[in-house]
Every structure is written in C-alpha cells, then in structure tokens.
Amino acid sequence: MKLFFFIGVVIITSTVVSQEIVTLQECYDLASVNYPLTKQLSLFETQHQLEQEVVLSSKLPQFSFDAQATYQSDVIAVPIPNSTIKPINKDQYRATLSVNQLIYNGGATDASLNVKSSQLKTKQKQVEVNLYQLKQHINQLYFSILLAQETDLLLQSKQTLLEVKLSEVISGIKYGVLLPASDKVLKVELIKIKKQLKDIESNKVTLIETLSSIIGHHLDPSTTFQNTLIETITTTELTRPELELFQLKKDEIESNEAVIAKQNSPKLLGFATGGYGNPGLNMLDNSFQPFYSLSVKLNWNVFDWNSNKKLREALSINKDIIDTETETFKLNTNTELNQQLNEIKRIEAFIASDLEIINLRKEVLKSADSQLKNGVITSSAYITELTNLYEDENTLIKHKIQLQLAKANYNVIKGH
C-alpha cells in the first residue's frame, strides 16, 4: 500500500455519510426567507394598504353631526309698533347633520397615493439591502465550516496512515528490526490527533449553530457542506441592490415634489346640511322646524410668495445629495473589488508554492518511510517528516478555502 494513498484519496473525495448536503447558494436562499428581518416585508405591505385607505377616504363623503342648545340674554326684536310678529325665543335649539364631498382637488389624492407607493418600494428595497449584506457573514461562516470539515478529513487520513504504520512498527519490534520503544512515539502522535479532532469538531458545531440561527434552518453536525468551485463574475457593471435603493429614493423625492406642486391647485367641494331646530332658517318663525342647505365652494391659493416653488427646489437638492452618495458608493465598491481581486491573485500564488512544497515533502517522506522500515531512523524522525507533510497539506487546504472565500466575497461585492 502506498504511503500517501489515504492522504491523496481524502483530499480529492469525501466518504463521510451525512444526513444532508448544503450548498452556499442554499444558505443565501434560506436566509432571505427565514431571517427575522424578512417579516418587515409583509408588515410594510400591510401598513401600505392601511395608509392607502386613509388617503382614498378623502374622496368619500365626510359626515359630521352637531347639536346645541343656547340661551341668549337678548334677541333681535322687530321695531314695528303694534306688530303681531312674536319675538324670537331666548332659548334656542339646533341639531344638524352635514355632508362634505370633495369634487376636485387637482389630482392631489392620486399624487399622495404615488408617494405611499414610492415609500413602500423604498422600505422593501432597504430590507433587501440589509439581507444582502448578510451574504458576506454567511460566506465567512460557511467557509470556516468547510475548512473545519476538510481539516477533519485530512486529520483522519493522517490518523489512518499512522495506525497502519503503527502495525508495521509493532511487527518490526516483534522481529527485532526496530527498537522496542519505536511504537511509543506513534501512539503519542495518535493521541494528539484525537485531541485535535475533538477540538475541530467542537469548533465546527459552534459555527454550524451560528449559521443555523442566521438562515433559520437547523443544520446537523453531520451535515456535509458542499465545496463547489466558485468562479468570479467578470462583468464590469455593478448590480448591487444599494444602487436600486438610491434610485428609489430619488423616485420618492419626485413623488413628493408632485404632491407639493398640487397643493396650490384649485379645490372644489360640495356641502349639504340638514337639521331640525328652533328657530330654523326662518328666524321669524318661532317654532321647531326642519331645514337644509346646499352649497359649493371653490378654493384656490393664487399667490403663496413662491413658498411652493422653494419647497420643490429644496427637495430637488436632496436628489443631488443622493447622486453624490451613489457615486461615493460606486467608488468605494470598485476600490473594494480591486482589493479583493489582488487578494485572489495573492492566494493563487500561495497555492502554486504550496503544491511545489508538498511534492518535495512527499519525496522526503518516502525516503523516511524506507529508512524507518530498515531501522536507519527512529519513529520520531519519521513523525517529524509526516507532520511536515501534514502541515503543508493543511496549509494548502486553508489557501484553497481562502481562495473560495475571496471569490465568493468578490461576487457579493460585485452584486451577484
């Protein structure tokens, strides 16, 4: 059996039987559905429906009821001698029901509805932005778990190899080829590996629990996290949701500008009042009687000292402010992308060096294995060379995981 059989096989394939296989994209999707912040989407929708109903109620008839009783110290008297007209009672009573109906307001109601719709879109997009920003946190957790998973497999391969080597050493001691204490070094190394495996497993469980809480889905410690090859997005255009949020904020400002512009539009209202009282509309009829009145009112603020225009100009400045925020965001994001791209290139160079070192280490360990079998070197010397190879293999795994993480973060920064 080749000395490097177990190490090579474990690095390339996984023989762990798990209850579930999870991908990075599935973690993204689960977080976008289960993260507590997503509840705000439905809450905003419900809030929007209520606000729309309030705005639309301005188009409906408005009813009001009034009732009053008064006593006056003096009343109007008819200054005609010997007149048969009775004076008005000093105690008077009146109950009225009034109906006000908006007939025309220059489209102010529809403009207000557009504002509410714009506000809803902005709030929902803000939630999407906040959820998107979770992706880098998910990346960190996912690839940390993946590193623990791959390191665990590598340690198990080293453990298996040492167990095989321990059997060979015990056989060599039995036949007098090796020194009696040669197996002790291997046993100590196996104990250390068991401790390392427990430490890795404990760390992995903590990471999985944290990831589970973010994506709102229970992940078992036996879950396999798929190590899929990630390719960086090569398009130059940013597709971050923040850019859409900036545009929606500008749309919201424009809808508010439209509302302000409608404030000086003519408003036509109709009024109807019906009532019962003493006296009625005929002040000379000193008795209880029903009455009603119908009226139409036109209101038009013809001159407002340009306050309406100034308010719209002030809102327009907010759009310019958002434009500067957009440009700043693009500049910072592109800078971050360049830094991430340099990180990817740096790690790729490390991996190339790691592969060269590992090939050399394998040659050294092959020679040490032959020397141990022939009793030329001690088990300690063999363990040193095996550990050197393991450390370099572990470094390669770390760099490969770091490369995947860097590419995943690059894509998130890009907007994919």
Q: How would you name the CATH homologous superfamily? A: Outer membrane efflux proteins (OEP)
Overall pLDDT, averaged?
89
- The CATH class is Mainly Alpha
Uncertain parts: 1-18
Strand order of the largest sheet: 2-3-5-6
Please give the count of helices.
9
User: How many separate domains make up the residues?
Assistant: 1
End-to-end separation: 46 Å
Main location: membrane
Organism: Gelidibacter sediminis
Protein name: Outer membrane protein TolC
Subcellular location: Cell outer membrane
Question: What does this protein structure show overall?
Answer:
This protein has 416 residues and is an alpha+beta fold. It has a single domain (5-60, 124-265, 307-414), classed as Outer membrane efflux proteins (OEP) (Up-down Bundle), CATH 1.20.1600.10. Helix content is 63%, strand content 12%. It contains nine helices and six strands; from the N terminus they run αβααββαααβαββαα. It has helices at 5-12, 24-34, 39-56, 108-132, 134-174, 182-215, 241-262, 307-373, 379-414, and strands at residues 21-22, 62-71, 91-104, 224-225, 267-278, 289-299. The strands form two sheets. The chain has a four-stranded antiparallel sheet, with no helix packed on it. The longest helix is centred in the last third of the chain and has 67 residues, at 307-373. It is elongated, with a radius of gyration of 41 Å. The chain starts with a helix and ends with a helix. The model is unreliable at 1-18 (pLDDT under 50).
